[in-house]
Amino acid sequence: xxxxxxxxxxxxxxxxxxxxxxxxNKTGTLEIQFVPKVGTEDLTYGQEYTxxxxxxxxxxxxxxxxxxxxxxxxxxxxxxxxxxxxxxxxLTVTISEVPKDKYTGLSFGVGVDQSANHSDPTTxxxxxxxxxxxxxxxxxxxxxxxxxxxxxxQADTTNNGxxxxxxxxxxxxDDLYKSIALYSDIxxxxxxxxxxxxEVDVATILDQVDFKSEIRTHTDLPTLPxxxxxxxxxxxxxxxxx
Amino acid sequence: xxxxxxxxxxxxxxxxxxxxxxxxxxxSAIETPTGFPxxxxxxxxxxxxxxxxxxxKLFFDPILSLDxxxxxxxxxxxxxxxxxxxxxxxxxxxxxxxxxxxPLFNLTYQxxxxxxxxxxxxxxxxxSPLDNPDEMHLPFQEAVERLARHPLYPNxxxxxxxRGVDGFGLVRAIASFERSLLSGNSAYDRFLQGDKSALSDxxxxxxxxxxxxxxxxxxxxxxxxxxxxxxxxxGLKTDYSDDFGRARITLDSSDIGKFRVPxxxxxxxxxxxxxxxxxxxxxxxxxxxxxxxxxxxxxxxAISGFAITSTEKSQLITFLGSLTDxxxxxxxxxxxxxx
Lengths: 242, 339
Known about the structure:
The structure holds two protein chains of two kinds.
Chain A: H1 2-24, E1 27-38, E2 41-42, E3 48-50, E4 56-72, E5 77-79, E6 84-86, E7 92-99, E8 101-110, H2 114-117, E9 139-140, E10 145-155, E11 165-172, E12 178-188, E13 193-201, H3 202-205, E14 216-217, H4 224-234, E15 238-240
Parallel strand pairs in A: 1-13, 11-14
Antiparallel strand pairs in A: 1-2, 1-7, 3-4, 4-5, 4-6, 4-8, 4-10, 8-12, 9-10, 10-11, 13-15
Chain B: H1 4-18, H2 49-60, H3 122-125, H4 127-131, H5 140-149, H6 153-161, H7 167-179, H8 187-192, H9 201-210, H10 217-220, E1 231-232, H11 247-250, E2 259-260, H12 282-291, H13 310-321, H14 326-330
Antiparallel strand pairs in B: 1-2
Helix pairs in contact in B: 2-6, 2-7, 9-13
């Protein structure tokens, strides 16, 4: 009699225990650690660097969204609903419950994909970088959409060798959303965290940008060529650290 | 027998996974004006009296600007169909707006917002003036925190949204109030509904001119809303480099100088006119269209100029005056709730 009364509780407990456990059994965690560089040097805000045109510049902000992370391989794994903001304060993108497997690489978008780009920011979770409550939120309120990447700092615009004029490069709009594919063997093991270091090179992102004549863009019509150039440069700016 | 509750538990647990929550049927607090298509609203923001009342308070409360001096209503006056009497509105720190503040009514029918159509929903629109340094200049999160500290708002948010103050409710409350601003009770509407005496003879003559092949007003100012919601370059300026209009959004140079065709309802009380407020009177607007405007590769083909006598001009203006909905302008539900 006593045991019969317990049985329903045991069954219920069993159901509750087994359901979530099924998922976690065969998965691991992927951690992408971005390593910001300027050419061969590490990126430090305020430090002076020289671009390919011999112009001095300093960075004060590098921040971008990462979306649509995908592990490539025979059984590719796509994580469409997870959005991240990357800057010097937070360089890590963590994706849990990745099915264990040997993957051949990873891809991700720099920015926010079209389906989420024009949605209402207040509908995202309060902790999401897409919600206005988040300190990393970057959004254009006059052309509803996210600012995919911000690069800000000072540069020498007069050839006097002093980096003292502000530059602002804010890149967005659906057409300039870039998907980056990086090929490298990535093994996700059960219950383990796999760290993939990805260098992001500001010198490549700003390649062929002339600080003298190209001091700002908000991805608007007159400066669309500059925004497009920076967006195109993103394709070559990321590489996996072996 | 004693296992039934377990089966019940399992079935309900499964149902929770399989089926979405069935929304409780709600009756909209917004009534469609006679002769108008049914009002619509987003699935996640069904208008209720509680939301509209909260939105009205927020609309008139300067708490939403940096120094608590500017409310939405500081540039959108009920007696002017919620437009501003200034060409360009003045924000906090005497910041000057970028374009003429548009009137607010029948927004539930509008496909997107701003004179360049850059904002897809009314909820999203609210983010813009709030954040703009020349308007209210209040960071969004600061607005949320201020309201959360306020003695009254947290309770009003709970009543309206069943949750505390957050950004989700903030934009939805104001959008609900704005969606409730419906105007469809002008003399012209009564005329349409069969009261042939609602329009004077001059107004009827003006209506004929408005629809005439010479003036072509109704090419774009068409239908029940007196706009097809398209974007048109009217040849107003010779240089649009300080405001590209629709091209600011599409990044397409063939859209330079195109701005939303505005509704002409209540137009009599929404001076000054055009996207930049550069024309002070309806007479000046008619003169502009009669002249055909400046040559511009993007200019709308209907704007080719026309001849009009001064009598005809005054008839046309009389007709435009018949589009004023006085009940809307005086509606007590639209006035400052703090007075």
